[in-house]
Write a structure and sequence with these properties.
Blueprint (H helix, E strand, L loop, with lengths): L9 H48 L4 H13 L8 H13 L2 H13 L5 H15 L2 H13 L8
Length: about 150
């Protein structure tokens, strides 16, 4: 092909297409990762907010059931706020103080370009240096439950 302004050399155009496709894929991963981090923080804030008001007002365990019912009634389009999920959010907030959640967000930033090796290294670091193993297992179960992460084989 001639390069007269209207025609592009095929090899240059193929390389261009590959570069654009790579950027699109990387951007999608970054967007999903950022959305997942925000969702995780939202669940923590919900749980923390419920726990705070239970303690402040002396509300009992039925608060969660009543809240789930009120959310269903007042916001029927909002999904994921069942009694069980709200209980998980409270358990999540109780188990992980804000400092720990910030650590997870920092870890998320480290894994912008994830690889199996980077993930293994970070999980090892978190398990060994930061948190008892049962908390990591609990977090993984919570993340899986809310479809924040998926196990990929």
């Amino acid at each position: 092909m001639s390069n007269n302004g209207h025609n592009i050399e095929k090899t240059n155009f193929d390389a261009f297409i590959n570069a654009v496709g790579s950027e699109i894929q990387q951007a999608q991963v970054r967007l999903i990762t950022a959305a997942n981090a925000q969702m995780l923080f939202h669940y923590w804030k919900m749980g923390n907010y419920i726990l705070y008001h239970q303690q402040l007002h002396g509300w009992g365990s039925k608060t969660i059931k009543q809240l789930a019912k009120a959310i269903r009634l007042n916001f029927p389009e909002k999904k994921g706020y069942s009694e069980r999920n709200l209980t998980y959010m409270c358990q999540f907030a109780r188990t992980y103080p804000l400092r720990v959640l910030q650590n997870f967000i920092e870890t998320d930033a480290k894994l912008i370009a994830p690889s199996v090796k980077k993930i293994e290294d970070e999980v090892h670091y978190q398990n060994f240096y930061e948190f008892p193993k049962f908390r990591i297992k609990l977090l993984i179960l919570i993340l899986l439950h809310f479809n924040i992460v998926r196990i990929i084989y």
